[in-house]
Fold this protein.
Amino acid sequence: MPPPDPMHCPFECGERCNLRCAKYVDYVLEKEGDVAAVVSETVRSTPYLPPPEYWPM
């Protein structure tokens, strides 16, 4: 999954993040079909912090 970096967004969202990165997880899980587990980190070891709506609690 791409990091939430508005300057280098692979979906070209720029500063107006529209959660395509988060929706990409749904796409990958749907495409693979046989995923047994998903391990996620809310903040990876990168200098980017996601917007509040990126990872709802």
